[in-house]
Every structure is written in structure tokens, then in C-alpha cells.
Model the fold of this input.
Amino acid sequence: MDTKVVKTTEEELIEAAAILKKGGLVAFPTETVYGLGADALNEEAARKIYAAKGRPSDNPLIAHIAKKEDIEPLVREIPEAGKKLMDAFWPGPLTLIFPKSGRVPKGTTGGLDTVAVRMPSDPVARRLIELAGTPVAAPSANTSGRPSPTTAEHVRQDMDGRIEMIVDGGPVGIGVESTIVDVTGEIPMVLRPGAITMEMLKNASALWRSIRPS
Ligand code: AMP
Ligand code: MG
Done:
């Protein structure tokens, strides 16, 4: 497979979105690292992510959305703490774990009954997801065990020939992965530290002072 590298014009993003809609793989910038995107509702597409990365298939993927409303088809319910955290930190590098709906294939969630969702702040990521018209599963665009890429060139060195397209939006800002908080239980729980610090979570609300690390 030839990996095409494009920039971020509307025409190029439309072409990238068409690949995602057809179940293909497209790497794109987010504010944390470059992600390796596929349609999160298409089990076959999700499987391609695992194959390209050499990622164990029980390691769940994060579904990325363009607007808060787009979470609806992915989840069974949005717990109160989830709503508050979405309002405080979305768009941004906070991933939340919700009970999953029947529409999310287990091939995306690594067999779990929960789903990880994030709304990135990067405008290229958001426009691409919007044009794809589906939530986009996107782990870091590197083969398992290699560092998470912060430039399109790093993605190319690692993924050339394994994916259809790379959207080059320049170097990305943080290079640190999203913070993951599980809001399915009584008390929100931090599963992975990341770009949103404990301090920021605690400061956001009195309720979240009860957040504890796993
Ligand atoms: P990343 O490698 O940045 O794409 O993040 C994926 C990580 O998110 C996984 O390795 C898990 O640690 C976490 N994750 C994704 N989905 C879930 C879930 N449903 N429940 C718990 N953790 C999850
Ligand atoms: Mg990674």
C-alpha cells in the first residue's frame, strides 16, 4: 500500500474523511500526539489499527468526537460527573470512560462493556472527524513499543506502507497523552495521568476533590 501524505486544506481533509468512511486508516494530528484513525463503529476498521500498530487486541481504543452531542450514540448514559468533566475540559486532552452503547463494537473496546471517549481541541482533528461523520478511534500513530509521534515525519518513518494516508498538520503541541478518568463508578477515578493534571481536575469542582488515583 502507498501511504499518501497530505496537508490540511478542506479538499485534503475531505479526501482523508472519505478513506475513514470506507474503513481505511488515516494518521492525523491531535493536540497531544499524532493519532492513527479509523471508524470507531466499524469493527473491521478497528481491527486494521491493531494490525498496523502490532497492538494487542485487548488494549481498548479511544473514540474521538467533533462535538459533545456526538457522544450520544456511543454511550448508554452520561453520569453526572461525566457531564461536569465534559463541560470543564472538552474540547481538550481528557478521555472519559462511559458505559458503552450497543453501537460500539467490542473490537473497538478490547472486549469491554465500557467505551473511552474524547473530544480533541485540535481544529484539524475536529474538522476531519466532522467530515468523516463518525466517531474516530485513534491511538498514537506508532508501532507498539515505539515513542508516540509528534510530527508527520515520525509517523511516516514508522507507518509508511501500512496506512492509506497521513495528514500533516505540523508538529503537535503537547506530546503527552490524554488523561483518562473513569466516570462509570460512584467516584470518578483517574486511570492514566496525562495532560490534564490531578491539580486541574481537583480545582475544577468540589465534587472532583474526591477523585483518587487508581
Ligand atoms: P491510547 O493508547 O492513548 O490510545 O489510549 C488507550 C488506553 O486507554 C488503553 O490502553 C486503556 O488504558 C485506556 N482505555 C481505553 N478504553 C478504555 C476502557 N473502556 N476502560 C478503561 N480504559 C480504557
Ligand atoms: Mg500510545
The mean pLDDT is 94. The longest strand covers residues 34-39. The first helix runs from residue 10 to 21. The two ends are 41 Å apart (CA to CA).
